[in-house]
Amino acid sequence: MKVLVVLAHPEPRSFNGSLFQVSVNELKAQGHQVKTSDLYSMKWKAEIDRTDFPDLATDARLRVPYASRDSYTTKSLTEDVKIEQEKLLWADVVLLHFPLWWYTMPAILKGWVERVFSMGFAYGVGEHSDKHYGDRYGEGVFAGKRAMLVVTVGGQKEHFSTRGIAGPIDDLLFPINHGVLYYPGFQVLPSHVVYQTDRLDEAGFEKEAEALREKLRHLDSIEPIAYRPQNGGDYEIPSLTLKPGLEGKNASGYSIHIREGGVAKNE
Amino acid sequence: MKVLVVLAHPEPRSFNGSLFQVSVNELKAQGHQVKTSDLYSMKWKAEIDRTDFPDLATDARLRVPYASRDSYTTKSLTEDVKIEQEKLLWADVVLLHFPLWWYTMPAILKGWVERVFSMGFAYGVGEHSDKHYGDRYGEGVFAGKRAMLVVTVGGQKEHFSTRGIAGPIDDLLFPINHGVLYYPGFQVLPSHVVYQTDRLDEAGFEKEAEALREKLRHLDSIEPIAYRPQNGGDYEIPSLTLKPGLEGKNASGYSIHIREGGVAKNE
């Protein structure tokens, strides 16, 4: 397979940076083709702004989605963004490696999403009718591809459990897994999360490295999270609310958007 | 009162940028002292990296939290970060104005949090014992201050409702309200959210501007979201899991962290 591995950590010698290297090495050892986007090494520009749209008239009001669509359509996006879009189109699988900072991904990775997931490319595509509300949530440019988060967390696992004060880790990652990855069509694998990485010694790292390698050996067969496709009949259109009675007895919050009996949780 | 108004939008003429101006003007008209952080105008650097810690030895491994704590302690953080920390200490109330991009705040604002909320300042503070797990979630440097999000959303309100495909807006904003603001001690007011801002005309804007002005007239009396303090007896220490039986019958997911009968929802 072709795998794109994205890293958002400023220190290659960090636990997170080391796990990134584990992924790259293991995937190559398995015979996969690998490309990488090491955002800090690339000095990735995080802020989306006027300079992203060189063709936008100096005095024109910047409307980010439409400027993004126009520049994507006329192939006038900046070179760094075009290269990332090409890598995403090339890949069968995309891994996002990042530390959980303030309960979500680092700014530099958020800015990669904002700048690379252009309108007309990753959103704002497909037919809009009374049966189909655009190609999104299960459809879209990345349909047929898989994606997985590899996340390191400083805190304890219990703090991110069902009753933990930080909120359940699957809920914290839902806006990324569902809103950023499933939205433009990826099948999303349960996230690979490692806790208390600051406390782990060399042996602890090796154990975690091996757990990740084992996961990477099954990238093509791991069951994706069973999110409900937007246009598959489960949602009213155009309100996009889940039709009554579809969710299980104990489902609430985000989990109503996962089909009963499907894979829901990270392990 | 002293109010800090933060803006994370690249276009002053946008709906969001215009609402920011409404806030600034209205607060001044009410006689409050106002400072602003217009992140795009300030060319705010979003990525936290080695250059944030000028005293870090060139060959030292960058461990972000500890580098941040050391630089904060020795007052060697960069000038832009120090200025923002001073503004936060000065303010009685902080407003964060931003558009919802990919279901959370823009990268530039996330990077403001990462760089300004240093260890030793906004986290990693307070006594750790078997009764007290640091000053956080209701305690910390910003205790006694209030904060509120002012969020513009392109999509329809229904998509962000309890059964909406995007997930409930209060859940999407929980990592910011609870994890970024309540964590270092802010009392968090229910978020002010405006939907389908791309579709609103001049009259629609004026109606929304007036709704925001009305809210701003009551900044000091609006009931904060009733999050449970970490060290108030509701959580086990050190697992920080909510003790059994405290949540209401219908509470689940994030909502178990809000006290029964307290204010939970944005309006």
Features:
homodimer, alpha/beta, 28% helix, NAD(P)H_dehydrogenase_qn (chains A, B), NAD(P)H dehydrogenase (quinone) activity (chains A, B), NAD(P)H dehydrogenase (Quinone) (chains A, B)
Shape of chain A from CA axes? globular
Greatest contact pair?
A-B, 61 and 61 residues
| Low-pLDDT windows of residues of chain A | none
Report the strand count of chain A. 6
Task: Please report the number of helical segments of chain A.
Answer: 6
Calculate Rg of chain A over CA atoms: 19 Å
Report mean pLDDT of chain A, rounded to a whole number. 95
Query: Hey, roughly how much beta strand do the residues of chain A contain?
Result: 5-15%
**What structural class is derived from the secondary structure elements of chain A?**
alpha/beta
**N-to-C span of chain A:** 24 Å
Share of helical residues of chain A = 25-40%
Oligomer: homodimer
The main β sheet of chain A shows up as: 6 strands, parallel
Order of helices and strands of chain A: EHEHHEHEHEEH
Walk me through this protein's architecture.
- The structure is a homodimer of 267-residue chains.
- Chain A is of the alpha/beta class.
- In chain A, strand 1, helix 1 and strand 2 form a beta-alpha-beta unit.
- In chain A, 28% of the residues lie in helices and 12% in strands.
- The first copy, chain A, is globular, with a radius of gyration of 19 Å.
- In chain A, helix 1 crosses helix 6.
- In chain A, strands 1, 2, 3, 4, 5 and 6 form a six-stranded parallel β-sheet that branches.
- At the A-B interface, helix 4 and helix 5 of A face helix 4 and helix 5 of B.
